[in-house]
Amino acid sequence: MTTTGDELATAVTGPWWWARWRSALLDGGLAVVSAAECASEGVPFARDAGIPLSAGVLFGLLAGSVLLVRRKWPIAVVLVAIAITPAQMGFLMGIVGLYTLAAAELPRRIIVALAGMSFVGTMIVTFVRVRQDMARGELTLGDWFEPFASITTSLGLTAPPVLLGLYVGARRRLMESLRERADSLERELQLLAERAEERAEWARNEERTRIAREMHDVVAHRVSLMVVHAAALQAVARKDPEKAVKNAVLVGDMGRQALTELREMLGVLRSGEGAVRRAEPVPLAAVEVAAAAAASRAAAEEGAGDGPCLSELDELVGQSAAAGMVVRLSVEGEKRSYAREIEQTAFRVVQEALTNVHKHAAGAKTHVRLAHRGAEIAMQVENEPPPEPGSASAAQLPSGGNGLLGMRERVVALGGVFVSGPTDAGGFRVSAVIPAV
């Protein structure tokens, strides 16, 4: 499991400049060992320098304890180690200081300069010490041993800690960059999840709107005509039995048509629910819900393959005429077939407009116009004022106020234009133009 940048920021629990207590304990332990080393090396230094032993030991303790601040001031630690090199003390401090310096976030020129100073200082001190030993007869090797010993010793004390520090620093920077990239990816995933949830919510809203529009189109027109025929049936049942039978047959046919369309729609809803249930155990459920909604919509379109089309306009107008409406259909241009969505939308616009005439202007003369143009199809339903001003259907049909809104949504979804409103003569006009390409 990766540790994010925020988690690292909150993980700083150590004292002063240490990120963790274990880092403080490690540096404290190294400082104690370095101070002990320098104190022990201060005894021969005091003898050679002719100063009291206590002064040499105290100097060694103070110099070795500088290693405690190696993380805060690595340059100071290396400079102190270089400074006490002539006294032949602080070897541990020099090695640890060079490692810390190379691993720190410092310019390379500073690291190279201090490492070079430490190398030169160690080489000079080693060369002088080996020459003194050879002069006293403690070493009987040839003259070649002096430069060899000084170079190998200085390299051994300088190169390994510097190279190791450079490697650890580079690895640390790589891990930090990977951690930052993981943080960035995590934020992007959160944004994607939020957007997926928004898209899923939008898809659900769109699906609810589409279902409500379809239910309104199916129920409103069929049931409105059924109510009108039922009212007419009640009025002529005793006076004209034959006409009453015809009206009853029409009511039955319309009821069966409404039930058929409702069953198709409910079947689509059930298949959509199944898709959502199957998507529940899958990760990123929001995306799956959106996909389920899209699948439901596609299933709805497939289920509507045998739905209304422009060829059924004559039957639609005939049903309204049978309900007592004076309606006339006129078609302009050459008839041709369109995409399924275009024909269904055009049919639904005319259907809902006729339903509104039944509801709000019973008995009014109505003109239905359909125009086939080169790149578009236009339709218009206009009714004259009702015979009696302010009259409504005798059956007092309820209105939810969603018919015009549903028509506008259908037309605009296909890139068309929808206009509705009262006419100067006191009637009402519904017009729509839908692109046919």
TrEMBL record:
First and last residue of the signal peptide: none
Pfam families: HisKA_3 (PF07730)
CDD domains per UniProt: HATPase_UhpB-NarQ-NarX-like (cd16917)
Domain Signal transduction histidine kinase subgroup 3 dimerisation and phosphoacceptor: residue ranges: 207-272
Top enzyme class: transferase
Annotated transmembrane regions: 49-69, 75-98, 110-128, 148-170
Coiled coil segments of this chain: 168-206
Gene Ontology annotations for the cellular component aspect, listed alphabetically: membrane
Catalytic activity: ATP + protein L-histidine = ADP + protein N-phospho-L-histidine
GO MF annotation: an example: ATP binding
Keywords of this entry: ATP-binding, Coiled coil, Kinase, Membrane, Nucleotide-binding, Phosphoprotein, Transferase, Transmembrane, Transmembrane helix, Two-component regulatory system
E.C. code: 2.7.13.3
Domain of life: Bacteria
Protein name: histidine kinase
Source organism (scientific name): Streptomyces shenzhenensis
